[in-house]
Design a protein that fits this description.
Ornithine Decarboxylase, Chain A, domain 4; 3 domains; Aspartate Aminotransferase, domain 1; alpha/beta; globular; Aspartate Aminotransferase, domain 2; seven-stranded mixed β-sheet
């Protein structure tokens, strides 16, 4: 296909040249009814682009097939058989994909270090989520990918599973052996779904890991907004092969997606796809050069360890996502959380995530040399602030390896609706969790409703809280606590 086309953007421009007198939504009517403050804050262009897909981007009966053309171009660009754009993020797209594969009572095998999007399905759909334990790097205290052996064992233990779901690349910048995991799943005719939220650009640069679809994944979901330049919430589902039914997926999307998708987001998806199809190699050559420069300069500061190729070959590591810098701050004697807070408030530098030991910086097509300078200067300033005693000292505590998933003793959907009480982490041991506990970012669930809380996980959560982690639902006066089922069992 001609990847120079951009049907969404082109039709949006046509509408701008010949607008209609509307008597429906959006009610601001290309900004005329928008508050002056909103126009001043967002600009006229944001409102002029905010039209509907029917009787706006296309006609009432979708006669011009604008979205069909745009999604066909996306499928071609990524090497997929079908593509589905979404404007509510990869969370909704991933949930729709999984709902199209399984019915209430069915089992999904999901990487334990995946985003909460997969796990929260259990609370609303009646699906059973069985976590796959990711490989653990004890030296660096990071969770790697799921191994093929772990996937094979889970498939053998749960022969009726409807899908294997892994996250690749992980939040800490490694990819799983997708080819081997796909082979294990396909041997039982089970589809492999890859949450590639951070890996959308892999298809467009030889310097990045291979796209999961080329390694045997049946479907992948990626956040085009995260690294490729689309607007926030822009996401795409990509299918390859026949293990995922595109018609059933479309019906599922029709049930849960908005009927008023954001045309600005769709246009940004369309144009990000075009830019990468035409110039992806050049775009990412520049990005990765800046990553390399940043890594060298940060290492030269002292007190920081930047992880690199030494991670290759470890369990759960097939390749590295070199757009991510994983920075160990242990030598500073402060937690990654406190380092993150200092960088944000004092240096105006924001990293994608932090934990008790690390900062993770993700580079995308939007980062320039000035951002590299700011990151390096911020880390130098952080080092000096620690030396002056401006940040509290924090000894490393229990790492991810100390986590111990409890036994599921109540259906998650039932536990989430059970009568509950709030207790400290220490008092939660042996009680049944009511809430999904997922420190943010990246909101990887460490407890699911219906799980019996282990002493190890309670201790890990207590240390994470003391180190500065943000745990949604346990804020303010409720910090250091969680909800458990009131009736003891």
């Amino acid at each position: 296909m001609d990847q120079n086309q951009s049907p969404v953007a082109d039709n949006l421009a046509m509408f701008a040249r010949d607008p209609v007198h509307g008597f429906g939504g959006p009610g601001h009517h290309r900004g005329r009814g928008a508050p002056a403050e909103a126009l001043a804050a967002l600009g006229d262009a944001a409102f002029r682009a905010d039209i509907l897909t029917p009787k706006g981007l296309d006609d009432r009966t979708k006669r011009f097939h604008v979205m069909e053309q745009a999604e066909a171009l996306a499928a071609d660009a990524w090497g997929a058989d079908a593509a589905f754009y979404g404007t509510s993020g990869t969370t909704q797209n991933l949930q729709a994909l999984l709902l199209s594969l399984a019915a209430p009572g069915d089992i999904l095998l999901v990487a334990g270090n995946d985003h909460r999007a997969s796990f929260s399905l259990a609370l609303t759909s009646g699906l059973t989520i069985v976590p796959l334990t990711p490989a653990y790097d004890a030296e660096r205290d990071v969770e790697n990918g799921v191994t093929a052996a772990a996937a094979e064992a889970a498939l053998a233990a749960h022969p009726g599973a409807k899908a294997v779901v892994i996250v690749s690349p992980t939040f800490f910048g490694v990819t799983s052996d997708v080819r081997a995991i796909a082979a294990a799943a396909h041997a039982r005719d089970v589809p492999l779904i890859v949450d590639a939220a951070w890996g959308g650009a892999f298809a467009f640069s030889a310097a990045l890991p291979p796209c999961p679809l080329t390694l045997g994944a049946d479907a992948m979901v990626t956040s085009v907004h995260k690294t490729m330049g689309a607007l926030a919430q822009g996401s795409v589902i990509l299918l390859r092969g026949d293990r995922v039914d595109p018609d059933r997926l479309q019906r599922t999307l029709d049930c849960i997606q908005t009927t008023s998708p954001s045309v600005p987001i769709l246009a940004s998806l369309d144009l990000a796809r075009r830019a990468h199809a035409r110039d992806g190699e050049a775009l990412w050559r520049g990005v990765l050069e800046r990553v390399g420069t940043a890594a060298s300069r940060i290492a030269a500061l002292g007190d920081y360890r930047v992880y690199g190729d030494e991670r290759l070959g470890a369990p759960g590591v097939a390749d590295l996502d070199r757009s991510k810098l994983v920075i160990d701050v242990t030598a500073l004697g402060v937690s990654g959380f406190d380092a993150d807070e200092w960088l944000q408030s004092r240096a105006r530098v924001s990293v994608v995530l932090s934990d008790a030991r690390h900062l993770v910086a993700t580079f995308s097509v939007g980062n320039d040399a000035g951002d590299v300078d700011a990151l390096v200067a911020g880390l130098a300033g952080l080092r000096d602030a620690v030396a002056r005693g401006e940040l509290r000292r924090s000894a490393p505590g229990a790492g991810y390896g100390a986590l111990e998933r409890g036994t599921t003793v109540m259906l998650p959907a039932h536990a989430a609706r059970a009568a509950s009480e709030r207790v400290s982490y220490a008092d939660a041991v042996d009680r049944i969790a009511v809430e999904l506990v997922a420190p943010a970012p990246p909101e990887v669930p460490r407890l699911m409703p219906g799980e019996r809380v282990t002493a190890a996980t309670a201790a890990w959560l207590a240390h994470a809280d003391a180190s500065g982690a943000f745990i949604p639902g346990a804020e303010g006066d409720e910090r250091g606590t969680m909800l458990v089922v009131r009736d003891r069992a």
